[in-house]
Amino acid sequence: MNTNENTRVERDALGEVLVPSNAYYGGQTMRAVRNFPISDRRFPRRFIRALGQIKLAAAEVNMALGLLDAHIGKAIVQASQEVVDGKFDDQFPLDIFQTGSGTSTNMNANEVISNRAIEILGGQIGSKKPVHPNDHVNLGQSSNDVMPTAIHLAALTAIKEELVPALQRLQRSLVAKADQFMPVIKTGRTHLQDATPVRLGQEFTGYAGQIERGINRLGHAQGELSEVALGGTAVGTGVNTHPDFARRVCQTLTEMTGISLHETTNHFQAQSSLDAVVESSGVLKTIAISLYKIANDIRWMGSGPRAGIGEIALPEVQPGSSIMPGKVNPVIPESVIQVVAQVIGNDTTIGIGGMSGNFELNVMMPVMAYDLLESIHIMATASANFADVCIDGLTATTKGPEMLEKGLAISTALAPRIGYDAAAEISKEAFRTGRTIREVALERTNLSADELQRILNPESMTEPGMSGEPGGG
To answer: pTM, whole model, 2 decimals?
Structure first.
């Protein structure tokens, strides 16, 4: 095999392989680089960090169990910490579309940490001495339990540090707008048709409630993700690992990260399936659909400004047209809607991935990891941006209240007094003649102007009870 000053020769189970001389990764990583020239998608920082954390905790536990010499273990701990800190992110070049177990990326981490530990101990990178990527860095582990554990840990960290704070920020913004808009009464809409009056603030209370419940749903997903596969090794039996290894590594990781982790009570389900990832993605999709509803409602309520609904005004953040002067578009809600589409697409991929648990192993772990972490990240950034750049700056116009008197659905308040059919006839005549419900009712009923003022009071129709009666508003 021809070498030069820019390469070194490494040997693995398949023979010799040339590796860049300045690379901390080794032969198995290099083979995977050549085997999978598929895309530009790489594992994100959070996943590499989680791998480093697992390797660090494993080394500490293996030393404590007397399975790893201290001088080797300490070097592995230092090297793993440097991976955690992001010092070797450029040494993780592998494509997401690789071996379905993620073995290539697990070995990538083992090789980088091994070679860095060798360097710390004064040895020659690539020699596998005195630190071996399999025998020492991967001690007590398998790609088949490390990779799903890393997915869970990375997702839990991203949910805690990114998504939950962003959703809480959005919820606070929606609650503030609900309070601000509560005095504004407008026409409600069902089936895109006029309905009984509603407060603009009540609509925003509904939006805030969707986000609140989304955060609660995330809590359940977090509980499911906290159960990890580590300790099952190859097929769930735990062969070649100490009985206390996984429990103690989980304790160490919990202390290290502040993320609660515990060893699964059933290793065979934890490695043959990624059901917790599928469920978590489903929760993300549910939250995304909530975001779509909120963003789309705001986009429509702000439509116009003259020929549309125009009940709210969105912040003007950029010109909206290259040809129409003065046009301003609802670009922030549109960006949220596009994120939602991506999250739903990711969920479809994750669902298909979850179906690929063949016998003792799921074989779509890398793409499931990538899509789950992408969904968490883009929903977090979109939610925070939605609050900061759009929701906080919303204002109510006068168009909603002005349309109330012309609304036809307020005839609903007449039904308890004159009957449904009579109220429907008044509504039809008002629509046909262009007059208001109040004007037609004054002609066609025995109700006085004062009684109609009380019965058709929009404010009383936004609360439970019979309109115009005690308890009605």
So the answer is: 0.95
